[in-house]
TrEMBL record:
Gene Ontology MF terms in the entry: oxidoreductase activity, acting on paired donors, with incorporation or reduction of molecular oxygen
Name of the protein in question: tRNA uridine(34) hydroxylase
HAMAP family: TrhO (MF_00469)
Alphabetized UniProt keyword annotations: Oxidoreductase, tRNA processing
Family designation: Belongs to the TrhO family.
Lineage: Bacteria, Pseudomonadati, Bacteroidota, Cytophagia, Cytophagales
Catalytic activity: uridine(34) in tRNA + AH2 + O2 = 5-hydroxyuridine(34) in tRNA + A + H2O
Length: 326
């Protein structure tokens, strides 16, 4: 068993004072030596963090002890070390930026548990709709799923016409995403637009892989940490993407080593080393090119960064926190 854990979670639950809670939550993460990205918003909490097993257990227990977050479902994965380089706890207007004007606490698609989804997905009256960004579904998606060429969920209204034919068709529309959070709002939006029989994969691709084996998810699942992609299909895996440079089948996704480009691309291991992790020869000539270490993940560099950065007490004073060693 690996020594670290990666936690993926969200919950729609009102937070009356997001700024105050952000500080409390940031301090909790510091005390537990966690790294990752957490969003606090009036509508709830959304995060992915990594840390030692005992620290992650303590973190989950602390959130579950808060009545507002008692219903959080954590997707838990193993790792050899931290999958993040920094800790960011931020206050935002939404826990997933959508601007769709819907409230999942009032209306959302019918939740399908992983095993229910597995049994239903091949029904001829079921249509799977991917609610992720284009670079995410390019490296992996469910067989036969409808995908949209969108950069983020805010663009969904521009693509609804592509599935307009499903209205009043009697078909079951099943939305899915990485961890389930986007589908809470995407399915609510479809219902608001007059679609019927709208469902969503509860817990997303990650939970489906963990609990139902990931059957019929081709490729790998894009994740928002330094792993970049993870395998989820342990039953009938397949590769759906090709190397941007040479065209050979590969699921290795990286960020282009040129900071001016930084595109998400699939690049095979050979081309990665031959071209220094770049997607084009022009990018290869970038004078500020980043050193390619084989992973293609580049965290933003901050001078003298420490996990305590970003934390301030409500009195506006820096607080000294004893950080444990790893």
């Amino acid at each position: 068993m690996k020594p670290y854990r990666v936690l993926l979670y969200y919950i729609y639950s009102p937070i009356e004072n997001p700024e105050q809670y952000r500080e409390e939550h940031h301090l909790l993460c510091l005390q537990l030596n966690l790294l990752g990205r957490i969003i606090v918003a009036p509508e709830g909490l959304n995060g992915t963090v990594s840390g030692l097993t005992a620290d992650c257990e303590a973190y989950m227990a602390a959130l579950h002890a808060d009545p507002r977050f008692a219903g959080i479902e954590f997707k838990v994965d193993e790792a050899d070390g931290h999958t993040f380089q920094k800790l960011h706890v931020r206050v935002k207007a939404e826990i997933v930026h959508s601007e769709l004007g819907v409230n999942p606490l009032r209306q959302t698609g019918i939740h399908l548990e992983p095993e229910e989804f597995r049994q239903l997905k091949n029904d001829p009256d079921v249509v799977l709709v991917d609610m992720r960004s284009n670079y995410e579904h390019e490296v992996g998606k469910f067989k036969g799923a409808i995908t949209f060429d969108m950069e983020n969920l805010r663009e969904l209204p521009e693509h609804v016409a592509e599935i307009e034919h499903l209205k009043n068709s009697g078909k079951k529309i099943v939305t899915y995403c990485t961890g389930g959070i986007k589908c809470e709002k995407a399915s609510a939006y479809l219902l608001a637009q007059g679609f019927e029989n709208v469902y969503q994969l509860h817990g997303g691709i990650i939970k489906y892989g963990m609990e139902a084996g990931g059957e019929d998810f081709d490729g790998e699942c894009y994740v928002f940490d330094n792993r970049v992609t993870v395998p989820v299909n342990h039953i009938n895996p397949a590769i759906v993407s090709t190397c941007y440079r040479c065209g050979t089948p590969t699921s290795r996704m990286i960020n282009c080593a040129s900071p001016l480009c930084n595109n998400h691309i699939t690049l095979c291991e050979n081309c990665g080393h031959e071209h220094g992790g770049t997607c084009t020869d022009d990018c290869k000539q970038d004078p500020n090119i980043r050193a390619y270490d084989g992973t293609g993940y580049y965290g933003k560099q901050t001078q003298s960064y420490s996990p305590i950065q970003g934390y301030k007490s409500r009195q506006g004073q820096r607080v000294e926190v004893a950080l444990g060693s790893e």
